[in-house]
Amino acid sequence: MSLLVNGSIGIDTVKTPFGVSENCLGGSAIYFSMAASFFAPVRFTGVVGNDCPFDLAKTFAGRNVDLAGLEVRKESKTFRWSGSYKGSMNEATTEAVELNVLAEEPPKVPAAYKDSQFVFLANTNPAIQQQILQQIDEPVFTAVDTMNYWIENNLNDLKALLAKIDCLIINEDEARMLANEANLICAADAILDMGVEVIVIKKGESGSIVSAVSGERFALPAWPSVEVKDPTGAGDCFAGAMLGYLASVNQADFESLKTAVAYGTVAASFSISDFSLKGIGSASREMLDARLQELKKLTQF
Amino acid sequence: MSLLVNGSIGIDTVKTPFGVSENCLGGSAIYFSMAASFFAPVRFTGVVGNDCPFDLAKTFAGRNVDLAGLEVRKESKTFRWSGSYKGSMNEATTEAVELNVLAEEPPKVPAAYKDSQFVFLANTNPAIQQQILQQIDEPVFTAVDTMNYWIENNLNDLKALLAKIDCLIINEDEARMLANEANLICAADAILDMGVEVIVIKKGESGSIVSAVSGERFALPAWPSVEVKDPTGAGDCFAGAMLGYLASVNQADFESLKTAVAYGTVAASFSISDFSLKGIGSASREMLDARLQELKKLTQF
After folding, report:
1. A81 in Cβ contact with A12 (< 8 Å)
2. Closest by CA position to A158, among listed A188, A196, A186, A202
């Protein structure tokens, strides 16, 4: 039930109709770990520069997150991202991005992490995702995120990666772009043909749909949130709760995936309710469990 | 359990990436009645001109649709609509429209229909919808569709209508426009404040969400259709199966509404699978029931 994540640690500035959050802690590995640690211990890997103002040990205090895989590079600078959201806030507009350490070598996976069974590789260059994956001995279930930039600019490495992993977790526009197919269900099937066992397509306020090579499908609406302040990190919280749950039950069959995606939906709903980590940070496993039951009620007929 | 519909009968020309269907039978009352009649007898009201090339008695042969409310106006011309769909086909582009009889007086509701208990008023000028509604004695459950044009151009009449009906069934863009609110859940709540008991928001390939003044909510993904040839009439088939089911159980409590919306989802999925009425026309109650069970399985965790 060991769970490893590789992803970014970011200094984020986010502007939404509800306010501005400047130079706050963000990044895929951070959001993922916050959500995943409600379910299972997390082995964290990621890199920051010498300028990182955040004490991650403090961020994750009391949470089951092992920071042995956190590298601090004295000569480097931390990843920075500025973005804004408008209207229904389904999509971020990137205002500025400084890759900094993310443009360098990926972190070294600590020897003690090499036996990790569940692995999440957050969005980055698929060539780097492959380098991380090669450092894990025999993962049981590997899930990967990517984005339009890599579909457009490094499709070969992405396709090579897809042939080696179990699950791709992407948003609907990315799925349509990757498959070159407007119908989202057909797009999912085309991506399954690229070699993954399962594809999870995230649709923001419209929920998610899961398709497997077995032919099984699962679809879930989003939680009906009346308070959406900052969607940043929602996708990583979704993946975190999903992988965290799978690691906790030590299974990745389709029935377990359904519950995992439902927990992902619930974790995302807490994340978007406030700026930066405040939403997911103020949740608890009990709150996630209670909302999971409400989600069940919301969709049952 | 009597069910009355008022809506359009159209001569449609539709172009999608999968082909063209010229001068075929369409219109909201037609699609609605096809879907509703799987569940309950339908009392049909609508008007055509002298040029109508369709034999509606033949269209509805073997289906439980009473055409006593069909008016043929010798001096008038039938409603015509031409539209096209592109990409993921979630939205129609109107290429041409000739209102013709729809710009005239609404049909007279036959005396034998005045005791109708379930009523669906398809999209038209809300002033006309009110005129129809006034001809019904004591409806138990009234549902209404509208569109952006009336929200922009006849909001007063629309708001007066909303205060008199039970249920509004509209798409997500219309809901946001009517409520002047980007968050769809907040938009639903704002529309409930306008006087309806229930609002059903249709999201095309992303399913639907139902909100009630009681505070209850229900959300359902769309059926995962790999074959979408022509979305025309999907919303009216949705409403048809929904109202038809409610009329068949003679109830409109929230639990019944859930099943009704699920049947609506299923009817819409058959409608979009082929051009014009071919999709919903080739379905059967058994096929709807079977897909309802599959929809249940698709969403359960």
Report:
1. yes
2. A196
Contact between chains at B298 and A206 (C-beta distance less than 8 A): no
Token pair of B20, please?
């063209």
Helix pair angle (B234-249, B254-271), 10° resolution: 140
**All residues at 6 or more sequence positions from A11 whose CB lies less than 8 Å from its CB, including other chains:** A23, A24, A25, A26, A52, A53, A78, A79, A80, A81
Query: Do A301 and B221 count as a contact with CB atoms less than 8 A apart?
Result: no
Using only C-alpha atoms, chain B has a radius of gyration, in whole angstroms, of: 18
Domains and CATH numbers, chain B: 3-299 (3.40.1190.20)
* A133/chain B closest Cα distance in angstroms: 30
Choose, out of B172, B206, B295, the residue to mutate when testing the contact with A (most A CBs < 10 Å): B206
- For residue B260, the distance in angstroms to the closest alpha carbon of chain A comes to 9
- ipTM of this model? 0.93
For B121, residues 6+ apart whose C-beta sits below 8 A from its C-beta are: B6, B7, B129, B132, B133, B142, B143, B144, B145, B165
Report in angstroms the alpha-carbon separations of B47 from A124, A183, B125, B129: 60, 36, 15, 14
pLDDT per residue as tens, chain A (301 positions): 899 999 999 999 999 999 999 999 999 999 999 999 999 999 999 999 999 999 999 999 999 999 999 999 999 999 999 999 998 888 899 999 999 999 999 999 999 999 999 999 999 999 999 999 999 999 999 999 999 999 999 999 999 999 999 999 999 999 999 999 999 999 999 999 999 999 999 999 999 999 999 999 999 999 999 999 999 999 999 999 999 999 999 999 999 999 999 999 999 999 999 999 999 999 999 999 999 999 999 999 9
Asked whether the beta carbons of B39 and B14 are under 8 A apart, the reply is: no
CA-CA-CA-CA torsion for A227, A233, A234, A236, nearest 10 degrees?
-160
Q: Say if the Cβ atoms of B228 and A183 lie within 8 Å.
A: yes
Backbone angles phi, psi at B286, to 5 degrees: -65, -40
- Rounded CA-CA distance A81/A236 in Å is 15
Burial (CB < 10 A; 0-12, 13-18, 19+), residue A180, is: exposed
Both tokens assigned to B239: 């409403």
Query: pTM (2 decimals)?
Result: 0.95
Cβ neighbour number for residue A130 with a 10 Å cutoff: 18
Among the partner residues A176, A220, A301, nearest to B221 by beta-carbon distance: A220
Please indicate whether, in this complex, the C-beta atoms of B183 and A226 are within 8 angstroms of each other: yes
